[in-house]
Amino acid sequence: EHDHDDHEGHDHSEGGHGEFTVEYHYQCSDIAKLDTVSTQWFSKFSNTKSMTVNLLTDSAQIQEVLNADRISFRF
């Protein structure tokens, strides 16, 4: 038997959100040809609202926010 009164004092985060960090490293033999970053994340994980992308190269440091309507950026 489960008594809901026993739950007083601790949170249920129904409808809350999760946050996590993913880090990828890529090596490109001709970085000069790389000018766009895109993702299919939002088509695979449709409940995701947005993601922050930090791009670091030898010549650029960029932060962009992507969402289902904006899945790529140029640099």
From TrEMBL:
Domain of life: Bacteria
InterPro entries tied to this protein: ZrgA-like
Listed name of the protein: DUF2796 domain-containing protein
Organism this protein belongs to: Vibrio tasmaniensis
